[in-house]
Amino acid sequence: MEFGFYMPTRVKTGKNCVLKNSDDFKIGTKALIVTGKSSAVNGALDDVLNVLNKNNTEFVIFDKVMSNPTVECVYEGAEVAVEEEVDFVIAIGGGSPMDAAKAVALLAVSDLDRIQLFGSDIGHRALPMIHIPTTAGTGSEVTPYSILTNHEKQTKKSIASDCLFPQYAFLDAKYMQSISHDVMVNTAIDALSHSVEGMLSVKANIMSDIVAAEAIRLISSQFKNLKEGIADKEILLYAAMLGGVVISQTKTTAVHAMGYPLTYFKNIDHGRANGLLLGEFMKYTEKYEPLRVKKILSVMGIENTAEFKNIFIELLGKRDNFSVDELEMYSYISEDTGGVKNSIHRPNVDEILEIYTKSLID
Ligand code: NAP
Ligand code: ZN
């Protein structure tokens, strides 16, 4: 048996975990708080400011992060970090502010241009980070990835380095009380997708499988409640973090790679994009790796991939409109990505187009 496992983020969970662990916020003398327009208006920013004031720690707020953050946004945030001479970063929000915060923490101490930023040598240094997720989806609080909208490549691209693991993650479901139904559903599907893809990754190992299976079991237990708008947010927040632990070992697969163009060109939410494709990707993989797929289905307590696909059709409602030309273009964009190469059975460009077509047009 040969495998490695590395996840250095210290995770603390539970009601008021930010307020109860104020000493953990003493990792620097001046903080840059990175957040979005509404992600902080749920009590999370108030709690953080309480803690920083109690600790006599200075801070600056950068609240310009949009959904699917752009390269331009993170350079702007890094400029603020440098000008204000901050020495740590606090991210508050969903995956978008958390991913932006990671790139800001990196660019604040490394002079990287836009090509270097997406290259393989981004160095090993970033400002220390504390992450407070306010959605239950990406698990970015425990991953070494920052995913940014890259207009040059006309898609989303990820930066990966162990220095992007946050030092701390605080998970308190009280910040998710006013989250919309759509965000709740889409983010839960994203979290499920991470764990399912983790089990369909060439890098899956015995430990990542254990964590993935537990996350899949927990999220599946909430499908009915999600539809009815009464999902247990604490369970989903925990399961999403587990999904992050999974992809921090396995990375994501063709589903995420194929979902990025849907988000880039059609502005389809990240989790929804994955949910639209996941069912057909499972059917495709089943032809070559039936035992892997069976294992996932059995954790979910379902019989077959048709039933699996149906879960997402029911949760996501009416599909978005696509033309064949659009899907052909997305297939060429996805073909050579790390996600496609990371799939236990790697689809070629024709198979990618077939998965897109069966998911989005047929
Ligand atoms: P998001 O873009 O962070 O947030 C979605 C929406 O929810 C935004 O409108 C946000 O508002 C709002 N929102 C967030 N928290 C809220 C709360 N507690 N109450 C009310 N509204 C709230 O969505 P996400 O799905 O969490 O993150 C998606 C991003 O993460 C994508 O860019 C994706 O590529 C990335 N991702 C990263 C990883 C990783 O490992 N790094 C993994 C998967 C996905 P505001 O924008 O106004 O704040
Ligand atoms: Zn994702």
What is the topology?
Blueprint: E1 10-13, H1 17-20, E2 30-36, H2 44-54, E3 58-65, H3 71-83, E4 88-93, H4 95-107, H5 114-117, E5 129-133, E6 145-150, E7 155-160, E8 168-171, H6 181-199, H7 206-220, H8 223-228, H9 233-250, H10 254-266, H11 270-288, H12 290-300, H13 305-316, H14 324-335, H15 338-341, H16 349-360
Helix pairs in contact: 3-4, 6-7, 6-9, 6-11, 7-9, 10-11, 10-14, 11-12, 11-13, 11-16, 14-16
The structure holds NADP nicotinamide-adenine-dinucleotide phosphate and zinc ion.
Zinc ion is lined by residues 138, 190, 194, 256, 270.
Characterise this structure:
The chain is α/β, with parallel strands linked by helices and 362 residues long. The longest helix is centred in the middle third of the chain and has 19 residues. Helix 2 links the parallel strand 2 and strand 3. The model has no long low-confidence stretch (mean pLDDT 96). The protein contains 16 helices and 8 strands. Zinc ion (ZN) binds next to helix 6.
